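hey can u check if this looks right to u? its 333 residues, i copy pasted from the old doc so theres a chance i mangled smth
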Amino acid sequence: MTIWLPTVFIGFQAVAQVVFSEQDVSFQNGSVELAGTLLVPDVQHRVPAIVYLHGSGPMTRAGFRRYAEIFAKLGVASLFYDKRGTGASTGSWLSASLEDLAEDALTAIQYLKGQDKIDHERIGFWGVSQAGWIAPLAASRSTDVAFIILNSGGGASPRESELFSYRKGFEKLGLSESEETEALGILDEYFNYLTTGEGRGQLVATLDSISEGRLHSLANQLKRITPSEKGRHNWSWVGAYDPMPDIEKIKCPILLMFGDRDKDHPTELAVERWREGLRKAGNDDVSCVVFPGAGHGIRMREGHIGKERPPFADGYEAMQIGWLWLHVLNDRE
């Protein structure tokens, strides 16, 4: 990073005054209408573009604006939209499968390919957390994905990620070895139900049996998120999805960013899996950065005081600007 940051900032200063236009847009994936915002730099040539992919939960377009405006001044267009069932978008993220979310992402690319100011050969993804599984799945299904930038996601499977997060929670609760063993057995029941659709009645009974004991917080959490038998299919990917076959198909340039103190996603395992999968893909256009002291989302949480969100790690935004300059903007028209 220290080798090419000076070049990056020289280039960034040269385009930092680029103004951009903004418009509300919408695009259709089947019966779902996705509402978003499109920022396009006001330049004479066609520009590359980024589609922003959400993390888990009910996320709107609002959290992406910071990046979109920075990248627009750099000369990159941005399409950021409300996740289905949030903001002005229709549908429901609660009933959406991983495939549905990947198709939403690909539909966004198709929308951008219909815009005259967009360079159709340079449209990529930017994503955080859960997007680390959405982006590889989408990229494995389309050659239209020209680049990928990911923050704190993918590599490790959803099940591995969830178990890592739960174990961190058990450490915080101070569970004994036997209590942790019991908790992990209950999680096995939960993931088995998600994957196979079998054993929901037994799972509910198990959760009822621990609802008053030391594992009551686990019981309450799993009761809240365990889907019905009717809705279970759309969540089966949490227990069953293996991202490796999709990673092994990624040929485009990719920037991976992690924090070494992430308590929600297993950084060490994720980096190992990404490297293995991309090596099998024959993809050597890979940049992987682990930020010391950073947690999930590359936020510096430890020791942070106050109501504001923790700051990003030093160099987080500069890394993305530099990477885009070298890997996406360097061959612009």
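The first helix runs from residue 5 to 15.
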